[in-house]
Amino acid sequence: MLYVVITYLWLALLLYLLLGGADFGAGIIELFTSEDNKAKTRRISYEAIGPVWEANHMWLIIAIVILFVGFPDIYSTMSVHLHIPLAIMLLGIIARGTAFAFRNYDAVVDNMQKVYNKIFVYSSFVTPLFLGIIAGSAVSGQIDTHATTFVSAYIDSWLNWFSVSIGFFTVSLCGFIAAIYLIGEATDVEERRRFVRKAMQMNVAAVISGSLVFVSAIADGIPLVDWVFGNPIGIAAVTAAIISLIVLWRMIHNGRARTLRLLAGFQITMVLITVTYKHYPNIVILKGGGYLSLIANKSADKSIETLALALLIGSLFILPALVYLIYSFQKRGVEDHR
């Protein structure tokens, strides 16, 4: 049952990165769009994420519940020592959701729409930035559970080059996957070309920020190169991601939207496998060489069994309903364009 819980935790993180990441990425794309095209981008993004934008955060909630119930030591350590980036991320989610609702459903159209738009795009950038910072901090080896000062306990744990560079890499990935998803929502050739250019720009940003991740890891003494290239799984995942990226760019102009989305999703999956496989099950690496493990720091067996059953049973209700929700709105969107 423990491995069922761990599998659900990993899948929840993956799905949040794929679905919630594309959700955030829509705002990132809008942020870096010219004023002449913002209205078009806003309309297309709304049609794409409007039906399911709130449901995407379900995966983050599931991951938090799994940590809280199944791995309380890990949950408490992260929530205490990373409470500042966690609070900023959660405020970003709230601000973004509020702005999205008001700018699309406000009964009065006035100058406040401009405020809502700015809150939406900037919170879309800030939220994945701090999500990446939290992820980087967990494995940076900077969390000091024996710290005696505020700065060493609650600032140094996340404010370092490695964590920040992962934050910008996460932003780039969200923007890239959103651009690929939005290509399929474009209704004419010019709009499709515009999102292709955005995907290319975000791809370049991901390469640059990804390179900075390796540079900062070397500077901070983090064995990231060994994590990625020191095992056959990591090498295979990186190779598969590169091959799929080449295929995607060869198909980008004429390929079917579903195929492009699958290729982009596959690349994100390979990235997550690459960065999590080597140091599994050590989900949090502490300063001084200690770590928190998904195996050693689990809850009581009874709690794990109950949590696993709840996840399995809940999936029977949640997943079919979510698939039907997405299918229903996609079908309605196709009918609306006829």
TrEMBL record:
InterPro entries membership: Cyt-d_oxidase_su2
GO MF assignments: electron transfer activity; oxidoreductase activity, acting on diphenols and related substances as donors, oxygen as acceptor
Protein name stated in the entry: Cytochrome d ubiquinol oxidase subunit II
Primary site of residence: membrane
Membrane topology: Multi-pass membrane protein
Organism domain of life: Bacteria
Keyword flag Transmembrane: yes
Gene source species: Mucilaginibacter ginsenosidivorans
Residues passing through the membrane, by range: 6-32, 53-74, 80-99, 119-139, 159-183, 204-222, 228-248, 260-277, 307-329
Family per record: Belongs to the cytochrome ubiquinol oxidase subunit 2 family.
Pfam family, one: Cyt_bd_oxida_II
Coiled coil stretches, renumbered: none
